[in-house]
Automatic annotation (TrEMBL):
It catalyses: Zn(2+)(in) + ATP + H2O = Zn(2+)(out) + ADP + phosphate + H(+). PROSITE patterns: ATPASE_E1_E2, COF_2, HMA_2. Residues 66-106 are annotated as: Disordered. One of its GO terms (cellular component) is plasma membrane. GO terms for molecular function: ATP binding; ATP hydrolysis activity; cadmium ion transmembrane transporter activity; metal ion binding; P-type zinc transporter activity. NCBIfam families: ATPase-IB1_Cu, ATPase-IB2_Cd, ATPase-IB_hvy, ATPase_P-type. Belongs to the cation transport ATPase (P-type) (TC 3.A.3) family. Type IB subfamily. It comes from Palleronia sediminis. The keyword Translocase applies. Its main location: membrane. This is P-type Zn(2+) transporter.
Length: 728
């Protein structure tokens, strides 16, 4: 399928059949999904009507007899994308046939449309040679022959579309125009028009194929094979057969075959192809790795955590496919408009053909010729493809940079955003508390950390893990502890070196009588900075204080500034206490709302959406309701599956600045759409007037049509090179 009108023809023909519903035709992946009641219509009937329109179709996993896209490596790609459809009908990968546009493995001149261009071009050149060397009469017959040969496949598709209930197609208009030109003795122009139309179709196919490269590149990231380790021995198996909890060996230079967790080895892993992050990340035991990323330094043993159909690449491809199906409001409007526009142009063409001769005695040949040219100008192909071409390019560009959006509607919503609401923990911050201050009172900093680590040893509480990590980094000595236990709401207790010790809240320390005025002032000062303070003490002595805080990500303040430069206000939503929220928001230059439960976040978003266009950014299960309530919900890539599924968009790199990048990309896409609509309608308006006035003829008309379609597609392809990180 070369343009959106192709998808429209397939959709229109299939959805008219009884028992067919939920028809979805994806242009970029050339895939048909539908719900089918086989008691009313069989699969064979579906396939037959699609083939009559000139497109190939096959059940999933088999080879189509005509046109076939597109994901590479046949079964590997089909399994990798993870998609399922009710009727199971889809073109398969990598196959091209008689009616095909340029497939991933063929040159344009190897396709049927390419051969038609070459054939009609040679016939046209031969006819011109005859015209120069022989009589005009012989040349006329040569032009007629060139026209008939070139228009025959176009006429077949026109008739098939008409039989399917769609008489107003570009193929029908071309057939009428070429036939009419022969009738009024304009054979030379008829042959030229047919040739130019064939050239235009090939160019459209090349442009559409280029737009699909991004999706193909994603599918190619996952290697075909994996080195599976069983019982200390290895063997090579297909990567799509890997199962969760199996162990794979990833050698230096290999691509990671599945999403997983490193269990042995330390190496830098290049994730740029998946997340767009250019700097390789150090992966140690316990770290997560993405399918398709490249191990660059040392061998890693990786435990598979997700099956092939659910790995990162498969999910990205699935999101892009789903996004293509979620058509933008602008696209739906243009689609409705084109259904009225084309019959209206046909009606005007009929009036142009008959009114001047009948009412004013003008020549029939002149006005029929102008009416035929008007028919060609009236084709809405360029207008119809103006939106989906831009949307597809924006989706592909974003996917390569870790910015995922689930369709044109999401792009429009992102472009219109006026306010961004951020969850705090795990979004604006790392989601892991870190020790920021160690204040010794009756001992050294090392003694405070050593005692605190001994009491907290074995605890899985985030604050305990942060203290243990800091003690290890500081080289604090190991102190044996016994009788350790948690004190709910207070802290933890253990016997260290024969004496009971505690790590607890300042209130608990105050209750035990070990917190004097000096220590209390230190606690209040650190809490005013948004830090959580714990006291480390023995039965009658305060050893020291430890302050912890979930620190903002390194790029959070920069992200807020970038949003402000885009004219977008930001607000932080958090369940933390007001002092902590105020301290963090003040450092970032952002408004805040604190002490919010999940339902409180939803209420805050509802209040904002009543007056503004709101984007919500979050990462946890508790963020899912708020993500669904906002005009557009964005999930951080490190977030939970629930947040990722609920959200309208995702950021894979966990960079807060990518929120501004996503909005820049969306605004660029909408600007590109406006440019495309202006090109499509502007060219048609100009040539509409010049055709009626007799200034331009048939061959200019077809150039205006196919030229506008190619221009619109090429303009949309500019988005593939758009850099969302570049600040205006």
């Amino acid at each position: 399928m070369d343009c959106a009108s192709c998808a429209g023809k397939v959709r229109g023909a299939v959805e008219r059949l009884p028992g067919v519903s939920d028809v979805d035709v994806a242009l970029m992946t050339e895939r048909l999904r539908l719900t089918l009641d086989e008691g009313q219509t069989s699969r064979n009937q579906i396939e037959a009507i699609v083939k009559r329109l000139g497109y190939g179709i096959a059940a999933k996993g088999s080879s189509p007899d005509r046109k076939g896209f597109v994901l590479p490596d046949d079964e590997q790609a089909s399994r990798a994308d993870g998609s399922r459809d009710a009727a199971g009908l889809e073109p398969n990968a990598g196959s091209t046939g008689p009616e095909s546009g340029p497939g991933p493995g063929s040159r344009w001149y190897q396709t049927a449309k390419g051969r038609l261009v070459i054939g009609t071009g040679l016939l046209l050149a031969a006819a011109w040679a005859v015209k120069l060397l022989a009589s005009q009469d012989v040349a006329t017959w040569a032009f007629i022959l060139a026209t008939l040969i070139g228009v025959a496949p176009i006429a077949r598709r026109a008739v098939a579309s008409a039989r399917a209930g769609m008489p107003f197609t570009i193929e029908m208009l071309m057939t009428i125009a070429a036939s009419g030109a022969l009738v009024i003795d304009a054979a030379e122009e008829a042959a030229l028009v047919v040739f130019l139309f064939a050239v235009g179709e090939v160019l459209e196919g090349v442009a559409a194929n280029k737009a699909r490269d991004g999706i193909r590149a994603l599918a190619r990231l996952v290697p075909k094979t994996a080195i599976l380790e069983i019982g200390g021995r290895t063997r090579v198996i297909p990567a799509d057969q890997l199962q969760v909890d199996q162990i794979v060996l990833v050698r230096p230079g290999d691509r990671v075959p599945a999403d997983g967790e490193v269990i042995e080895g330390t190496s830098g892993v290049d994730e740029s192809a998946v997340t767009g992050e250019s700097v390789p990340k150090l992966k140690e035991p316990g770290a997560s790795v993405f399918a398709g990323s490249i191990n660059s330094e040392a061998a890693l043993r990786v435990r598979v955590t997700k099956s092939a159909e659910d790995n990162t690449i498969a999910r990205i491809i699935r999101l892009v496919e789903e996004a293509e199906s979620a058509r933008a409001p602008t696209e739906r409007f243009i689609d409705r408009f084109s259904r009225i526009y084309m019959p209206a142009v046909v009606g005007v063409a009929v009036l142009v053909a008959i009114v001047p001769p009948l009412a004013f005695g003008q020549g029939w040949d002149t006005w029929i010729y102008r009416a035929l040219a008007l028919l060609l100008i009236g084709c809405p192909c360029a207008l119809v493809i103006s939106v989906p071409a831009s949307i597809a390019s924006a989706l592909s560009s974003g996917a390569r940079r870790g910015l995922l959006m689930k369709g044109g509607a999401v792009i429009e919503a992102a472009a219109a955003t006026t306010h961004v609401a951020f969850d705090k923990t795990g979004t604006l911050t790392h989601g892991r508390p870190r020790v920021t201050d160690v204040v010794p009172i009756s001992g050294s900093e090392t003694e405070v950390l050593a005692l605190a680590a001994a009491v907290e040893a074995g605890s899985s509480h985030p604050l305990a893990e942060a203290i243990l990590s800091r003690a290890e980094a500081a080289g604090a000595p190991f102190l044996a502890a016994t009788a350790a236990k948690a004190l709910p709401g207070k802290g933890a207790e253990a016997v260290v070196e024969g004496e009971t010790a505690w790590v607890g809240s300042p209130r608990f320390a105050g209750e035990r009588g070990v917190l004097d005025d000096h220590a209390l002032r230190a606690v209040v000062g650190m809490e005013d900075e948004g830090k959580t303070v714990v006291a480390v003490f023995r039965r009658s002595q305060l050893v020291g204080l430890v302050a912890l805080r979930d620190e903002p990500r390194e790029d959070t303040a920069r992200a807020v500034q970038q949003l402000k430069a885009l004219g977008i206000a930001s607000v932080m939503l958090t369940g933390d206490n007001r002092r902590t929220a105020a301290a963090i928001s003040a450092g970032l230059g952002i408004d805040h709302r604190a002490e919010l439960m999940p339902e409180g976040k939803v209420a805050a978003i509802r209040e904002m959406t009543a007056r503004d266009r709101v984007m919500m950014v979050g990462d946890g299960i508790n963020d899912a309701p708020a993500l669904a309530t906002a005009h557009i919900g964005v999930a951080m890539g490190s977030g939970t599956d629930v947040a990722l599924e609920t959200a309208d968009a995702a950021i894979l790199r966990n960079r807060v600045t990518d929120v501004a990048g996503k909005i820049r990309l969306a605004r660029a896409a909408m600007a590109n759409i406006r440019q495309n609509v202006a090109i499509a309608l502007g060219l048609k308006a100009v040539f509409l007037v010049t055709t009626i006035l007799g200034i331009t003829g048939l061959w200019i008309a077809i150039l205006a049509d196919t030229g506008a379609t190619v221009l619109v597609t090429l303009n949309a392809l500019r988005l593939l090179a758009f850099d969302p990180e570049r600040e205006a």
